[in-house]
Design brief:
31% helix, 6 strands, homodimer, alpha+beta
Chain lengths: 154, 154
């Protein structure tokens, strides 16, 4: 069992890109979507677009200087709910060899802390309907599955 | 029946704020969430936060110089799907006196056009599970209800 005291949360750096892509590809739904080569221009450009945007926070969890989990927070200003900022979470991933040790909860709690720091009125995410284990995980964290999540390739 | 040729799409302006808040409040779920006074600082600040962010597009539909529908697009840079930009849609509203005349489809098609212009790989939105009419509407537009939508008040 991993000692959570040894985990460290920080903003992702460009040098993390190979490990971030490994986490994204190491997933039942993601494995056919990603290329193996993290030096590809599309990934470097995307990283820089995230990193230069004050409303994006690509959060990683480090253990012994290795990135073992990630997620992306996007802060969305809006008029609804008296002009509340909302936090949208995408790309939640934990190293497949280290699951079941509370790392997902740990990084999600860090994300919720960041959302509270920015005074967000709402945190939201969607999860593919096939990911039933993930749904139980989010429910345990206090999320309510109150919405249908719609996607379209434009 | 409204002549769709008379509809005009444009980016929202600060002077639209009273009408935008009217549209947000004129809704079964939104009516208890919003204040009546659009001059309140929280709304003006939120409008400016949206308007000054290159990744936000608060889109309105005008008929005879009156705003009759709205939605908010947020462009989210990400690493997934080979660094694809995704478009998130919030706050889709049509004047309750003008529903059933294709205005919702009209403004959604404008939003999808903006997403294609930015080369988005995915467009996404969530809709409260109680809004079954809205779900049929999004499905007709080509959206797939493939995801669970989770929300949490942090």
């Amino acid at each position: 069992m991993i000692d959570h005291e040894k985990l460290k949360a920080r903003r992702a750096r460009l040098s993390d890109l190979p490990q971030l892509l490994k986490l994204l590809a190491d997933d039942a739904l993601g494995k056919n979507r990603e290329a193996a080569d993290s030096s590809e221009a599309c990934y470097v450009q995307a990283f820089n677009a995230i990193d230069s945007d004050a409303n994006q926070y690509l959060l990683v969890c480090e253990l012994d200087r290795e990135v073992i989990a990630m997620l992306q927070l996007t802060f969305i200003p809006g008029l609804s709910r008296r002009g509340a900022l909302r936090a949208n979470i995408e790309a939640v991933r934990v190293d497949s060899g280290l699951r079941g040790q509370g790392i997902g909860s740990w990084i999600m709690r860090k994300a919720l802390h960041l959302a509270r720091e920015r005074d967000c009125g709402l945190v939201q995410l969607t999860s593919d309907k096939s990911r039933t284990k993930a749904h139980r995980f989010y429910t345990r964290l206090g999320f309510i599955g109150s919405h249908e999540g719609f996607k379209l390739k434009p």
